[in-house]
Design a protein that fits this description.
Elements lengths: L1 H24 L2 H23 L7 H15 L5 H23 L7 H18 L7 H10 L5 E2 L2 E10 L4 H15 L18 E6 H8 L1 H9 L5 E6 L3 E11 L2 E2 L6 H27 L10
Helix pairs in contact: 6-10, 8-9
């Protein structure tokens, strides 16, 4: 009886609290708060499920490790590997956040890099089949000048500075006349000091064009063997030239340059594929340039 009475007394003490909770539960504001809390919890759960995921797969991890080994000559330690991963993740997070904020828009460097990657991707998509022997030989015949050995020349020259003005041409003419005089056969003409060689045992026509200009190279190519000629003009001044030996350009045999021919053919095909790919893109996009009619 005593225990029943104790329970009844305890229930009586909590009765006001229970009535208060029931009364609060019937309040619309409480219902609103409960529903709001549930919605908030649900929204947080959805956001957590929709968070972008950064994945570093095994192939990329192996690539990072291989790059480290190539630079350092050894495998990374555990701490170094963790630092590599941390840097890679930080890079990805920053890049994605930059894209989200639109920082990649109107950036010339990023645009060029994307265009370059797209060009490489178009080459992969438009894979070029290995050319046959007949194809390579036809390409070699059509582009024989690519595989020609340039003409080589042995020569001596005497220089007359452009700073002399008209007097330089006069001095060059007098030196040439003396060198050609029967009484002075074999005598070397004398001119001014020069920064470039005054004698070439074996120089290519391309090198002469690079150093002296096309007009000088053409004059040397047309000069007689074994006799002083000139004056020949260059950007430096005037030259008397004596060609001692000249070997003409020769096309290398196909067999000796077959690998180069193949590389050239493949490069041309890839360039053609890229041009076709770009032409297709021009048809897919409408390009409007400010100031021009659309």
């Amino acid at each position: 009886m005593a225990s029943v009475a104790g329970v009844a007394a305890g229930a009586a003490r909590f009765a006001p609290l229970v009535r208060g909770l029931k009364r609060v539960a019937r309040e619309p504001l409480v219902h609103f708060l409960i529903i709001g809390g549930l919605l908030f919890a649900g929204l947080q759960a959805v956001r957590a499920a929709e968070r972008p995921t950064v994945r570093i797969g095994e192939p990329e991890l192996n690539q990072l490790v291989a790059y480290w080994q190539m630079q350092s000559g050894r495998s990374p330690t555990k701490a170094e590997l963790q630092a590599i991963l941390r840097d890679r993740i930080d890079e990805e997070l920053l890049a994605r956040e930059g894209q989200r904020l639109g920082l990649d828009k109107d950036d010339l460097i990023i645009r060029r890099r994307l265009a370059q990657k797209m060009a490489f991707a178009s080459e992969d998509v438009g894979a070029v089949a290995e050319p046959g022997e007949a194809t390579l030989r036809a390409y070699y015949a059509k582009n024989a000048d690519r595989y020609a050995t340039p003409a080589h020349i042995a020569l001596k020259q005497v220089y007359f500075s452009a700073e002399r003005g008209p007097a330089g041409r006069t001095a060059a003419g007098q030196a040439l006349a003396r060198a050609r005089s029967p009484s002075d056969v074999g005598a070397e003409p004398v001119g001014d000091p020069f920064v470039l060689p005054l004698s070439y045992a074996d120089v290519s026509l391309d090198d002469l064009i690079r150093d002296y200009g096309a007009d000088y190279a053409r004059a040397v190519q047309a000069a007689p063997i074994g006799a002083w000629t000139g004056p020949v003009a260059s950007a430096y001044g005037l030259h008397l030239v004596k060609v001692e030996h000249r070997s003409g350009a020769a096309v290398a045999p196909f067999e000796s340059v077959r690998a180069d021919v193949r590389d050239g053919w493949l490069a041309d095909r890839r360039a053609a594929n890229n041009a076709a790919f770009l032409q297709g893109l021009r048809k897919r996009y409408r390009v409007v340039v400010t100031g021009e009619s659309p």
